[in-house]
């Protein structure tokens, strides 16, 4: 599903974010990427949805070498990858429903399908009763649910979550992780970058630990350490 | 179906943008209006000047003055020989008696000719009409070669001066329109860029969920077109109102000036102004969003 071979990333300002990363993530896996801030977690995620390109090495997503995609092909790669952010990135002037439907509308999905699929996604994250609320009227956990609904509404095969619980209290964090687990069980590969020890330890999934841009541990059914 | 869904989305988004930054949109529309009004004004000026030259040119003819002692018979021979020169369409002989009579009829009310002179001071002459104004110099030369002809007169200088004026107006107008176009484009680009910046997160999300660049661009291009259409329609209304008013005044004050009243020509000018507005808006929308769509390396 996802394959990184000898991937390094150096930014134009000279910062070495990732160094010689080799990583294989199989279909429908659930993987935690852990490590302190600045370890390269976010950069690793960005390489997967081609927000950044590797300086050296190859990144293969769903059998496609993302470095070789031209700018017209990138949108089609991204339709297959859902992304969830720590700060949600919801559009403030649109309702919950509009935020989710937006992801379908802008990829040219016919209107007859937009309503049905948006509602299905909102139902999955238990937000159907808040469809006409605006983001500022929601709690952090609710916002993250909407963000997840938007990420999965296009039925991607991969879901990337970058610090999804970074702004949430422990109880809400667990609920969000349960939701990601539920999505993983619906045959979606889920990769979660986090430094939330409690979650990682309790979920007992594969853990890839980054430090200073290098993988220092890759352990099945691991804890945070 | 997919196309219709897209168009509906684009228009709704474009209107949302205009509404969100209505003050800047209003300013941009105003500036498009002023620029396109000036653009239309130049088109009208050039068309009217061209028309005037054509009109003056068609009225031009040669006057060839002849020997005073020319007999009517000699005049007839000369007349037929002049009419054989290429480009000449009509030659009429005006005897000095006839010319004197016309002159007195024309001016008798304005001055007392009896006081000026009792004798006829005028020569015999030929009025020669030519097919096109450009032929005037050549025909004048040929006519002047006849020994019986004393002098040939035509307003060639006036013609060439008018043509110089027209080309000056054309070149000056083109340069001005060019500069105006870029100044207006810059303002439209910056106006739409404000809505682009206000929608940076929207664009980021659109890119993230896999919207194509052209899909992201369309709402901004349509926003530009809306600004262009509103601006040019206003410009055309002002242009039409002022053209009608000025035409009316000139025609009552200077009825001999050949003002263009052909509604086809005017309509073409108005359509050109409208198309320029649309083009301006489209380009403005397209350029303003391009920076955000550049792929990261």
Brief synopsis:
The complex is a heterodimer of chains A (225) and B (297). Chain A has seven helices and ten strands.
Which helices and strands, and how do they pair?
The complex is a heterodimer of chains A (225) and B (297).
Chain A (H helix, E strand, L loop, with lengths): L1 E9 L5 E10 L4 E5 L6 H8 L7 E6 L2 E2 L8 H5 L2 E4 L11 H10 L5 H14 L15 H13 L5 E5 L7 H16 L3 E6 L2 H7 L1 E7 L2 E9 L3
Helix pairs in contact in A: 3-4, 3-5, 4-5, 5-6
Chain B lengths: L1 H19 L1 H38 L1 E6 L5 H12 L4 E7 L1 H12 L5 H4 L8 E6 L5 H9 L4 E5 L2 H43 L1 H9 L4 H41 L9 H31 L4
Antiparallel strand pairs in B: 1-3, 1-4, 2-3
Helix pairs in contact in B: 1-9, 2-7, 2-9, 2-10, 7-9, 7-10, 9-10
In DSSP terms, counting alpha (H) and pi (I) runs of 4 or more, how many helices of chain A? 7
Strand order of the largest sheet of chain B: 2-3-1-4
Largest sheet of chain B: 4 strands, antiparallel
The helix-strand sequence of chain B is: HHEHEHHEHEHHHH
Order of helices and strands of chain A: EEEHEEHEHHHEHEHEE
Structural class of chain B: alpha+beta
| Quaternary structure classification | heterodimer
Q: Mind summarizing the main beta sheet of chain A?
A: 6 strands, mixed
Rounded average pLDDT of chain A: 92
Number of continuous helical runs of chain B: 10
Residue windows where pLDDT falls under 50 for at least 5 positions of chain A: none
Radius of gyration of chain A (Å): 17 Å
CATH class (first level) name of the largest domain in chain A: Alpha Beta
How many strands in all of chain B? 4
- Give the chain pair forming the largest contact, with residue counts: A-B, 29 and 24 residues
Order of strands in the sheet with the most strands of chain A? 6-7-8-3-9-10
The total beta strand count of chain A reads 10
What's the CATH superfamily of the largest domain in chain A, by name? Answer: P-loop containing nucleotide triphosphate hydrolases
Question: What is the second-level CATH architecture of the largest domain in chain A?
Answer: 3-Layer(aba) Sandwich
CATH topology label of the largest domain in chain A: Rossmann fold
